[in-house]
Amino acid sequence: QPPCLRDKRKKTMSEMIHITAEQFTKRLVHLCLRGLLNIPKDLTDQHILLKSAAMSIGAAGPMTEKELNDPLQAWLDMVNAAAEIDRVSLRRWMVDMGYLSRDAVGSRYEVRLCGVNLAEFDPAIEQFSTAEILQSAREEVERRKQAYLQKAKGA
């Protein structure tokens, strides 16, 4: 059983946030395509972003802060995060929300894909790729833009 499923802070079903695959994709696209200016206030949106970041890093085992920096920055670049969210604040946010665990010394980190048991994700989400979701959404936006321009040109 993953360590995050053995968390001593068990939540009741009414406290748990349930996130479907469709909800995950729609909210991720919405948050990232408009530009992620800072940490969203909505807890569901926070879990979606942190799950996306954790999945992008992967479960590579214990990592030093230096080893973690590149994947964190790559995720920030991919989701169009503004300067208000840097890899240091992302790392702290992930630790606070349970998507990263830190050893007692604070020198090694490990990804926890399910956070602190406050959110329950559709199992299909584990197979998602943030890069593919966002690329597909960007292509759709461009396709619609071109169709609109063609229509406006012909009018």
What does this structure look like?
The chain is mainly alpha-helical. The protein has helices at 21-33, 43-57, 65-78, 87-96, 130-154, and strands at 17-19, 63-64, 100-102, 108-111, 119-121. It is elongated.
Could you list some keywords that capture this structure?
two-stranded parallel sheet; three-stranded antiparallel sheet; mainly alpha; 10% strand; 155 residues; 5 strands; 5 helices; disordered N terminus; single chain; elongated
Separation of the first and last Cα atoms? 61 Å
Percent helix: 40-55%
Number of helices: 5
Strands, count:
5
The average pLDDT is: 85
Could you give a quick summary of the protein structure above?
By secondary structure, the protein is mainly α. 50% of the residues lie in helices and 10% in strands.
